Structures are given as structure tokens and as C-alpha cells.
Amino acid sequence: MAHNITSGWLNAFNVMKNNFTLTNDAIGVFAINLRFDLDDIQTIVSESITGGGDDKKCDVVYVDKERQIAVIAQCYISQNQKPAAPANKASDLNTALTWLLSSELKELPDSLKGRADELRSAITSGDIRQFYIWYVHNLPCSENVKKELKAVENTARAALNNFPQGADINIFAEEICDARLDRLYAQAERAVIVTDEISTTISDAVEVKEEDWKSVVTTVRGDWLYDLYHKYKTDLFSANLRGYLGSRESDSNINNGIKGTCQEQPKNFYVYNNGITALVLDYELGKRTKKGRILKITGISIVNGAQTTGSIANIGERPSPDLLVPIRFVQASKESLVSSIVRFNNSQNKLQAADFRSTDQIQERLRLEFDSVPDAEYEGGRRGGASDAIKRSKFTLPSYTVGQSLAAFHGDPVTAYDKKSELWTNEKNYRQIFTDRTTARHIVFCYSLLSALNERKNALSHRMKNEPSSVTTVDQNILGFLTKKGSAYLLVHAISQCMETILSKPIPNKSDLQFNKNVSPAAAEKLWQPIIDMILSISNQLDLAFSRNRISNESVSKTVPNFVGVVSSIKHLQKETFEKFSSSVRSS
Q1: In 10 A of CB 207, how many CB atoms?
Q2: Residues with Cβ < 8 Å from 247, sequence gap 6 or more?
Q3: Please, are residues 59 and 75 in contact by the beta-carbon 8 Å criterion?
Q4: Is-contact 582 503, C-beta < 8 A?
Q5: From CA 429, how far away is CA 433, in angstroms rounded?
Q6: Dist. CA 509–CA 493, nearest whole Å
Q7: Within 10 A of 1 (CB to CB), how many other CB atoms are there?
Q8: pLDDT of 279-314, one tens digit each?
Q9: Of 583, 566, 482, 568, which is closest to residue 532 (Cα–Cα)?
Q10: Which tens digits make up the pLDDT trace of 23-64?
Q11: Rg (CA), the chain
């Protein structure tokens, strides 16, 4: 690969590839993870990478209704040093957008139908506010690619304008090149990447100090923020996932309203605006004088107020000296505290759903139980940053994926696939999957099944991309099934419904199911393999569970009972497989 071996992002990417046996297209997911602080890389790879073949120039299609974002990516990795990436691959994104947003669903290949339908539905329902179109590669950025992406952005705008609420979506066509990946990785590594020493004069300030942090609250002039933005650009928002989103000419647009106040009522800005919170590496507050006080800060990252700062900096002229902005500078000594400050202070970035349950008694108990499970680390609602997701041990069980595996196994594959945050925020959903009988070993039982299915899909995609001659017709059919949206959760649910047949005994409470031995999730995956092989061999019996290549409650409820009947009817043919698996499982 065309880079110095010491490149931080490249080393991290290669570790991720090796841990999960991924193709080069995973560079797109790697970039998404860095940019948006995602959780479970393996599951996201399985759900968003299209798998090659007839992908209509769509290497990655990622839809996240919780964050209200969509990312369409074309990915390219050069094995040799070149001055720039091929510009025609950036142009290919025009083709991708046409297929995803404008073509008839019935004309799309099966691998894209579900993804396109999911994307279009999210746009129509107003669940997408930011639309990213990325060309992700490992070479330097270039002007030619930049020009192509400008045309791509225009294509996206024309297509989105045909959707209800599509005109209100912000579009970002971007080249995520080597330098940008380096910057994203540095941003994930540390919240503050602007480390200069900066001074300003303030009228006065209020300072508060605690053992692990200190803060100064004051006002700064708008022209000071204006100069900061034009010097550091988006680096000023290194700890803010959204950055500055720009302004549209509509009264309903908040950023446009901020600009209007700056220009028309600068003296009232202080009472109209909530102000800014900025992380600093350190600060020094000077003595009071007749001219005010000198505030010297070292490093800065605006964690709340990116829209305010960006709007002030983009009014077309230097702001009036009368424009005063309330601001709080915070310096924290512990990395964990910095992460919490970023999360809780950024009003645009909601608490991730699992955060709501991190102190729940059940989660605390489960974390303790996992201490005795080999090669397993359970987060239990606690989350780190983007670099944590990349660096975290391959033995980590991400909270979201655990919730999804439990929901699918216990009867709700559609919510597991389509509304994973509700498994944590909705009290009813949460209490159905996390009960007093839910144990660490039961989680291993369910999670390993979902993980094994995702691994099977990723492995087949890898072979299809790198060793196409080794892929049989049966493999192609299985990959086609696993490519459908929600297929892994559907299979977990179907296998759960077949458990009494597989074990040849009644199961009063499925929460009691676990493997006899206290095995690691990786070892548990191997125990599931014979069952998965058998189920995938007849997975075509579940085709009717999909509507436009996505699972739905109605179609699942009609199809799965028939599938259970099919498995029951061939039980005698699978006697050896079922008995061997049954000998490794207990239900009480």
C-alpha cells in the first residue's frame, strides 16, 4: 500500500481489516467510524458494504436515522504511490446517486434494493438531515477530484429535491484522502487538535475550579471568533461531530437566523444566543485592569457552538465591535472527563441511546458477570470515542449489537434491524430483552449467533471480491440472501423459533439458554456453525419475509412459522447435527 508504515490511520485500518477479515472497501466504514463515532464495526461493515459485483458504483451505503445522516461512498486503495486518485471514480458517484435515488426499485440489483428503499424511506420521513457523498482513498487530494465532486453534489441536490423534505437536507460531497484520514484519525485520538497559544482581552470573567477541571465564563467579541474560524477552519470544531452546517435562505434555518442577528441586531446577540462551550488544554486569566483582563488559552476546540461560530464567520464581513458572544472555556485533566464534556455539552449530538442505561443495575450486574467469561469484554451501555471503536479489543461486545442480538432472538428482529436505539430508550423494549434472568452467558449465546452470521456474510463478500473463482453458485445464493437488509436478524429470530426442534425439548424460558461450558464468544461462534450451515441451506424458504428486500413485521410473522415447520419436517435428516449441538447447550 502506498504509504509510510508509521502512518497512524493506516496502521489502525490494517488492524481493523485483519481483526474482521475485511476487503479494501472497508476503508469507507473506517472513515465513517472516525467521522461519526460509531460502535460496532463488524455489524456496520455487514450492513453497509454492498459486496462488490453489480453494485452500481456504490461501495458503501450507510443510513443512520438516529444521527440523521446518510453516507454514500466510492472506495479506492492504491498499492503504489501516485500523485492523485483516479478522478473517474469520483465521477462514478453520479451513477451511484442515480441508481439509489432516482431509478425504479425493481430495476436495481437485489444487493441494492433494500439499501435504496431504506435510504429513500428515511429521506421521505425526514430522518435524514445530512447527506454525505464520499470518495475515500489512500492517495493525496486533487483538484480534478474536487471538480468532479462538485458536479456530484449538484446531481445529489437535483435528486433530493424530488423527495418531500429533500430540499432541506445538507449535502457534503467530499474527498476523504490520505491527509483527511490522517486528520480524522488525529481528531479521534485527541479532542483538541488546534494547540496554539491564543490571547484576547475580555471585560471580566467568572472562574470555577474543581479537582479535575476548571472553567472560566466570559464574553468574547464576535470579530475574535471570526478571525479564529478563518485561521483554523473546521479544525476549530475537532471535538464537535457535526461542525458548521452552513445556512439556507429560509426563516426556519437556525444558522441563517444567527447571521441575521449578527448583521441587524449585534447589540442583542448576547441575549438571543445560548453561547459557546470550548475545550482548552489550559488557560491563564490575567489581572483586572482598566482595559479589562488578558485571557490566554492554549489549544481550543468548540464543542457546543459550531453553528454560532460558523455563522458569525460567514456573514460576508467582519462583525460589529458591539457583537459580544457568551462563552465558557473548560480545561479538564482526565481523558474520560473530556469525553463526557464533549458528549453532554454538544446540544446537537444527542446522548447515544445506550448511554441512558449505563448505570442501570442490570447492566452493572452484567459487566461484573462478564469478568468471568473468557476473551469477552462487555461495555454495558458505556461508550468510548471513535478511536476506541477502532482500537478496542476484538473481544469487545458492543452494547448496541448485544441489544440487537437479544431482541432478534427474543422475537423482534425488525426493531433489532431498524430501530436499534429504541431497544435502549424505550422502557418496554429494554425490559423485554434485559431482564433479571438475562445473564452474561445467555448474551454470549445470542451475540455469537449474530456475530457468526455477520462474519459469514463478510467472509463471502471477501471471497467474491478477491477470489471470485472460488465462489460456488450456492455461495452466491447465500450471499444474495445475507445481503438483504435485516437478513442476519431474521435468521437469528428464525433459529430461535426452531430451538425446541433443534434441542428436542421444551424451553420454558429462552433467557435460560446458554452453552454448557463457559466459552468465549469466538468459541461460541464455532459451536453455531453447523446450525448456521443447515439453516442457510434452506434460507430461500425465508424469502417471503422480505418486502422490497427489507424485513417487515407483517411478512416476518407470516413466513417464520412456515420455516419452523420446514425445519421440523427435516429434523430426522439433521439428527446428528442437532444432537451434537444440543449436547453443548443447556436451558435451565
Answers
A1: 12
A2: 253, 255, 256, 259, 311, 314
A3: yes
A4: yes
A5: 7
A6: 15
A7: 14
A8: 999 999 999 999 999 999 999 999 888 888 988 988
A9: 482
A10: 888 899 999 988 887 767 778 888 888 865 667 889 999 999
A11: 26
